[in-house]
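PROTEIN–LIGAND DATA SHEET

This sheet pairs a single protein chain with one bound small molecule, zinc ion, given as SMILES. Inputs appear in the order they were entered. The predicted three-dimensional arrangement of chain and ligand is reported afterwards as a token string under its own label.
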Amino acid sequence: MTNNTTQPRIWPNRSSTFELPRLHCYRCAYEWFPKTLKAPKVCPKCKDTRWDVPRPLPKLVAVKG
Ligand SMILES: [Zn+2]
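PREDICTION REPORTED AS:
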């Protein structure tokens, strides 16, 4: 008799405590812990849909002087 309860491991866990990864908004630098495994579509603070997309590098501006 095999009583193997295999649970799907979504996040690699080193410790025994289950912790959700902290999310970070690239737009407003807001950080939060999601309540579900699904990442939200918008940042809970600035409501930006591209909160997980890093900002493109700013163009180099020639410094006058
Ligand atoms: Zn944000």
